[in-house]
């Protein structure tokens, strides 16, 4: 997709460490913006079986995911923690139609998103390390060493020519949720 084709919408890339509360913030905004067609909340495609303890996603086998990626059925895709993740190509049409598209993505695809879409806003979700450690431990998917390694990981989320907003989700969800909601509403109001 050329940048001219996506002139009026915006892609909001929600990034941050596991346990920062990205999915909670996205769910908060999704509920508050229910019925508003100018916002699209993307359901990710993941090579992980459906699991009530994990995010709500569309599951694909490795083979089906690879076939979808090879046939240009994905707008963006990446690999992390032994799994493959992708966003459906349909988001291109949403952005072209002027919608604000919101997705939980890996930092590693921000550059690709910035090259693909005219307006990319990075919502960098953070939380204090002890809060993240508590949340990760409560999920029960990782041992103490894996949690320690996650906490030690620091990545740059700079977007060449893009916008980046920090949202601290250490406190009450309502507080960070309102900040995130405001960001989305501003993105919609400032469509180009």
The CATH level-2 architecture of the domain at 3-43 and 98-189 is identified as 3-Layer(aba) Sandwich
Supply the CATH superfamily name of the domain at 3-43 and 98-189: P-loop containing nucleotide triphosphate hydrolases
Spatial arrangement of strands, main beta sheet: 2-7-1-8-9
Cα distance spanning the termini: 17 Å
- Strand content bin: 15-25%
Largest β sheet strand count, sense and barrel closure: 5 strands, parallel
Helical/strand content category: alpha/beta
The oligomeric status of these chains comes to: single chain
Describe this structure in words.
With 192 residues, the chain is α/β, with parallel strands linked by helices. It has a domain at 3-43 and 98-189: Rossmann fold (3-Layer(aba) Sandwich). 37% of the residues lie in helices and 23% in strands. The chain has helices at residues 22-32, 62-70, 90-96, 110-116, 129-139, 144-152, 173-189, and strands at residues 10-15, 39-41, 45-46, 58-59, 74-80, 83-88, 100-104, 120-126, 163-168. A 5-stranded parallel beta sheet has the order 2-7-1-8-9, sandwiched between helices. It has a 4-stranded mixed beta sheet with strand order 4-3-6-5. Strand 5 (74-80) and strand 6 form a beta hairpin. It is globular, with a radius of gyration of 16 Å. It starts with 9 loop residues before the first strand and ends with a helix. 33% of the residues are buried. Mean pLDDT is 86; it is low at 1-7.
